[in-house]
Amino acid sequence: VQLQASGGGSVQAGGSLTLTCAASGRTFSNNGVGWFRQAPGKEREFVAGISWNGGSTRYDNSVKGRFTISRDRAKNTVYLQMSSLKPADTALYYCAVRYSAYVGFDENDYRSWGQGTLVTVSS
Q1: Based on the number of CB atoms within 10 Å of its own CB, is 25 exposed (0-12), middle (13-18) or buried (19 or more)?
Q2: Deepest in the core among 28, 87, 99, 100, taking most CB within 10 A?
């Protein structure tokens, strides 16, 4: 499966963006999917994850209450709604498919990384 992340852009602090992760080639409807991000000079980190049927979600504490992950299995798409954005959220955001059907935090459990979409939040 190939993933394409889109929807990034430049916003002011407090603004909102919705990222989209679309799959092609194969479906990922039976896999967990995660969003990760990498800020300049920092390691890639887990942001949010969703189980195969959307019944379970997990968030990093830094985005809990501000970001919402969801999926549309029929469209083979996963979304990340981001609100109350902060300059600290500035990063390249990636989506990836998990080997398992469930949510996980470890990036080593993920594959098929997309190219990423850049989110820039100005103060």
Answers
A1: exposed
A2: 28
Provide the 3-class DSSP secondary structure of residue 123.
Answer: coil
Cβ contact 59:38 at 8 Å? no
Taking a C-beta distance cutoff of 8 angstroms, is the pair 102, 51 a contact?
yes
Res 27: pLDDT = 83
Q: Quick: pLDDT tens for 84-105.
A: 999 999 999 999 999 999 999 9
Burial of residue 64 (number of CB atoms within 10 Å: 0-12, 13-18, 19+): exposed
For residue 34, which of 16, 1, 66, 60 has the smallest C-alpha distance?
Answer: 60
